[in-house]
């Protein structure tokens, strides 16, 4: 035996002192799950006749895993720091529950293992509710701690003790971030209670706890104390954080999404005062990029643009993909306006430089609209609308540029959108009609044909000319509906004139968008099949811009139209940039010399002569548009121009007025 090591007799003697205690006292071997020593009172409490009989009971048999785990924790606590605990326990001697207050501490056995000495110092209050609540406190997973204001905890339930990184640490040391503690104390002082999710130090490292704290008094000393209940929400928080991350991110590019922009706006509205600029941009002709290079390349372009925006935006700026090819950067507007403008230019240039996708160099350019605003007035929809108006201006001014929003722009946009709504309504109410302008045959002096020109008979404003509504219709797509109504009205008028024995040809204008519409051929076919209607009487006017593009498709479409019997005229000829070498490949019947050349006669004479010669070459007739004077008429007649249209001959007029002219000749 080693000198100084406790001998069996000494140990037993040591317990012998406890044997004489009035209070039930016993030693529990945690590893073996058995009582190894017990005084007489303990035997009585456990309803055992002898100490030996008690020693033979296997206590681990009916023990719940939670209790077993807790005992192991106590064992570690005893070994680490001479801990003493007091708890209300419910014992089950021979199956009958008995509640007692037990104080327990470590007890080193002869073989060196740590056991537990338990001493009952009070019969518990035997009110059933009290017993049950005390039991619940012991077994719950909710961590409950009663803290003094600055010293060590006054009480910890087993769950709290289990999780604690240091059972003696005051409340301030619970938190990883001291600001959480500061807020908690501040709130406790004010409201007396506080709840927050915070990162805390635990026996398992840092975890997220949902903490409820209440100010109270210690039941023993009456001193002010803080009752803290806590639940470990780490898993929940991780999942929630991830869900929040995903909810705020655009899947394709990884930058923020539209819903984040709303959060961000609310955030800076409350916390920031420096003005911000919202840069709203999209890719010019993105559809064309997708169509030409495929959607994968299109996606690669978007990813690259998002990456560039992130690189060139400052750390406090926010990059958002709204959807499709539309992005937003919200940036701080520095006091130095020149510096701010330089930053905008830098970002814009970076976004507009060519993008290398694999081996392909894609020349994607962007257009941008910018709205500057105070953070306190960050209404996302309103600011986006302003930036969108400015973006629209950038497109209108020729694309690949940035434009700052101003109020005049807003008013114009508002007027425009009002007009748009009115046009839509006018289409439904069929407020559009046709006026007709004759074309005179130079040789015979007779009306060779009339051109149908759209007019909007506005119930309040009176007659509105096409310059005000055609461009809007073209841009919004309403031109298809308008074009359809024009065709219907024109064809019906042509048929009516034929039926009445008035023999005239009719020209109708087809807009580029209407020509590109895949339904146009079907519509023409349906009209061409109507009884009593002769397509040969109808000429369709298209502009040169229609001829620019994929030639084979356009030529085939024109061929189908002429095969149905319709004739084709090129309107405003000479203003576009049609490739002259291709002109001969299209089935064309008429070239209408643009008004601007007629207005500049005789100065523009060589050009007019050139067009007349070209028309002769391809077997088409020429029509001079916008002839206003006798001099012009004479000049054109001498030049060999076939037909004349213009105010000099007649202004556009409603069908009955034209009918009078037609029947007179
Ligand atoms: P356009 O097809 O070149 O039609 C000729 C335009 O010149 C008409 O203007 C006509 O009123 C005007 N005009 C005719 N003679 C003279 C003249 O001696 N002097 C001057 N200064 N102007 C003259 P309007 O009716 O205002 O139409 C303008 C344009 O709107 C048309 O040019 C055409 O491009 C388009 N448009 C008109 N109706 C339709 C339609 O039904 N569909 C489509 N897609 N476009 C149409
Ligand atoms: Mg025309
Ligand atoms: Mg014209």
Concise structural overview:
By secondary structure, this protein is α/β, with parallel strands linked by helices.
Descriptors:
single chain; 665 residues; alpha/beta; eight-stranded mixed beta barrel; rod-shaped; disordered N terminus; binds ligand C2E; binds magnesium ion
Q: Which consecutive residue ranges, at least 5 long each, have pLDDT under 50? A: 1-7
Percent range for β-strand residues: 25-35%
Average pLDDT over all residues: 88
Structural category is alpha/beta
Oligomer status = single chain
Bound molecules: ligand C2E, magnesium ion
> What's the story with the biggest beta sheet?
8 strands, mixed, barrel
The proportion of residues forming helix, as a percent range, comes to 40-55%
Instruction: State the strand order across the main sheet.
Output: 19-20-22-23-24-25-26-27
Number of helices: 25
Distance between the termini: 143 Å
Task: Explain how this protein is built.
- Helix 11 (295-312) runs antiparallel to helix 12 (337-352) and helix 14 crosses helix 15.
- The chain has an eight-stranded mixed beta barrel, surrounded by six helices.
- Mean pLDDT is 88; it is low at 1-7.
- Strand 8 (193-202) and strand 9 form a beta hairpin.
- It is of the alpha/beta class and 665 residues long.
- Bound molecules: ligand C2E and magnesium ion (MG) (2 copies).
- Ligand C2E binds next to strand 20, helix 15, helix 16 and strand 24.
């Amino acid at each position: 035996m080693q000198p100084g090591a406790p001998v069996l007799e000494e140990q037993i003697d040591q317990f012998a002192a406890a044997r004489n205690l009035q209070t039930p006292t016993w030693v529990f071997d945690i590893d073996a799950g058995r009582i190894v020593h017990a005084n007489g009172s303990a035997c009585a409490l456990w309803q055992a006749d002898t100490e030996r009989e008690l020693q033979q009971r296997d206590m681990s048999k009916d023990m719940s895993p939670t209790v077993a785990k807790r005992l192991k924790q106590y064992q570690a606590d005893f070994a680490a720091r001479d801990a003493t605990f007091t708890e209300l326990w419910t014992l089950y001697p021979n199956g009958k529950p008995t509640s007692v207050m037990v104080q327990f501490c470590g007890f080193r056995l002869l073989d060196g293992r740590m056991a537990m000495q338990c001493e009952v110092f009070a019969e518990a209050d035997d009110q059933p509710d009290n017993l049950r609540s005390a039991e619940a406190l012991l077994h719950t997973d909710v961590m409950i701690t009663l803290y003094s204001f600055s010293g060590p905890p006054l009480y910890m339930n087993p769950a709290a003790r289990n999780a604690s990184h240091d059972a003696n640490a005051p409340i301030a040391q619970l938190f990883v971030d001291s600001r959480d503690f500061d807020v908690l104390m501040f709130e406790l002082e004010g409201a007396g209670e506080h709840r927050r999710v915070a990162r805390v130090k635990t026996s398992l490292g840092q975890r997220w706890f949902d903490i409820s704290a209440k100010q109270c008094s210690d039941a023993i000393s009456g001193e002010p104390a803080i009752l803290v209940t806590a639940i470990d929400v780490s898993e929940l928080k991780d999942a929630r954080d991830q869900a929040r991350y995903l909810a705020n991110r655009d899947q394709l590019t990884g930058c923020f999404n539209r819903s984040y922009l709303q959060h961000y706006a609310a955030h800076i509205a409350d916390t920031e005062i420096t003005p911000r600029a919202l840069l709203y941009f999209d890719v010019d002709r993105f559809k064309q990029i997708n169509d030409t290079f495929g959607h994968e390349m299109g996606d690669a372009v978007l990813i690259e643009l998002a990456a560039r925006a992130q690189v060139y935006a400052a750390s406090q700026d926010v990059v958002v993909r709204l959807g499709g090819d539309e992005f937003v950067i919200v940036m701080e507007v520095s006091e130095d306006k020149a510096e701010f403008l330089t930053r905008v230019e830098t970002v814009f240039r970076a976004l507009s430089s060519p993008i290398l996708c694999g081996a392909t160099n894609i020349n994607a350019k962007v257009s941008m609209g910018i709205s500057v605003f105070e953070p306190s007035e960050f209404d996302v929809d309103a600011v986006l609308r302003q930036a969108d108006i400015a973006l629209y201006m950038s497109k209108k001014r020729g694309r690949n540029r940035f434009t700052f929003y101003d109020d005049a722009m807003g008013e114009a946009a508002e007027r425009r959108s009002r007009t748009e709504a009115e046009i839509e309504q006018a289409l439904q109410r069929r407020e559009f009609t046709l006026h007709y302008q004759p074309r005179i045959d130079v040789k015979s002096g007779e009306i060779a044909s009339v051109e149908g020109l759209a007019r909007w008979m506005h119930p309040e404003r009176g007659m509105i000319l096409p310059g005000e509504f055609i461009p809007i219709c073209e841009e919004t797509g309403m031109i298809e509906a308008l074009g359809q109504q024009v065709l219907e009205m024109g064809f019906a008028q042509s048929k009516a004139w034929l039926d009445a024995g008035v023999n005239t040809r009719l020209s109708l204008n087809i807009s580029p968008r209407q020509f590109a519409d895949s339904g146009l051929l079907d519509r023409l076919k349906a009209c061409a099949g109507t009884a009593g209607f002769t397509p040969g009487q109808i000429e369709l006017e298209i502009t040169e811009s229609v001829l620019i593009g994929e030639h084979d498709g356009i030529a085939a479409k024109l061929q189908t139209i002429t095969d149905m019997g319709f004739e084709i005229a090129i309107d405003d000829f000479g203003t576009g940039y049609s490739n002259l070498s291709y002109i001969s490949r299209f089935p064309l019947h008429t070239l209408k010399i643009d008004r601007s050349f007629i207005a500049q006669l005789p100065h523009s004479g060589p050009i007019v002569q050139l067009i007349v010669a070209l028309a002769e070459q391809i077997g088409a007739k020429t029509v001079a548009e916008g002839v206003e004077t006798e001099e012009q008429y004479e000049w054109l007649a001498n030049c060999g121009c076939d037909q004349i249209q213009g105010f000099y001959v007649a202004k556009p007029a409603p069908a009955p007025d034209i009918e009078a002219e037609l029947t007179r000749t």
